[in-house]
Specification:
This protein is α/β, with parallel strands linked by helices. The protein is built from nine helices and 17 strands. It folds into two domains: about 140 residues, Response regulator (Rossmann fold, 3-Layer(aba) Sandwich); about 110 residues, OB fold (Dihydrolipoamide Acetyltransferase, E2P), CATH 2.40.50. A five-stranded parallel sheet has the order 2-1-3-6-7, with helices on both faces. Strands 12-11-10-14-13 form a five-stranded antiparallel sheet, with helices on one face. α2 packs across α6. The longest helix is centred in the N-terminal third of the chain and has 14 residues.
Amino acid sequence: MELPIFGRCREENMLRTVIIDDEDHVRETIGRLIAVHCPQVKLVGEANGVESGLKIIRNTHPQLVLLDIRMDDGTGFDLLHKLETIDFKVIFITAYEKYAVQAFKFTAIDFLLKPINPEELTDAVKRAETLVQEHLNSQLQTLEENLKTEILHKKKVVLKTLDNIYLVDLQSITHCESDGCYTYINTTNGDRILISKTLREFDDMFNECGFYRIHKSYLINLSQIKRFEKHEGGYIILNNDCRIPVASRKREELLELFEKLAK
């Protein structure tokens, strides 16, 4: 029976989605969660590996792919490399732990940790609907490089603004400065990039990468410190001569940190 016109319009406006994961129970779980929590999503297929995933993508032309990173016959990146163009949004599914989670955060690419959380799935799908497709290739390349890199100073971070997307070497960031619900990212070449994330979010992202929350309004790169001025409560002078105040409650902790760095 042919759908009424309003029914066809609704289906046409739904987000055509494919799930690619080598674990049957993961695909089943995601399918159930989407049915309950994501009414804007229409599942058009699923696959359990790279080769079957390629086939389902080419046959169904999805707008969104939920893609496992490690599968029996390869990785999600192997699959993406086999495609001539990537004309769909991607949300990765991963069992990776903390290090890899940071790599995802650095590149502003959405991911879901196994076991799948319904709220995180819903939020990721909503973000995918507004993702600017033209930025995806550079973000994917940076993510793949970061996942392969174990040396922190080689990492890059993707910073997105309304008008631009920046790929910044992590160690070129001198400090981050709070501006309410926004944060200014300051770099060694003088860039001052305003990002719609709180300083707390960057603190969580960078806290094991040589950055230190020195003040409620400042997060600094320890490798950029030139000296510590003890008078007037204390100031850190960075290599670019920027003067950053030290919170009184952080002073002793900072001195102890200097002692550890000197050993």
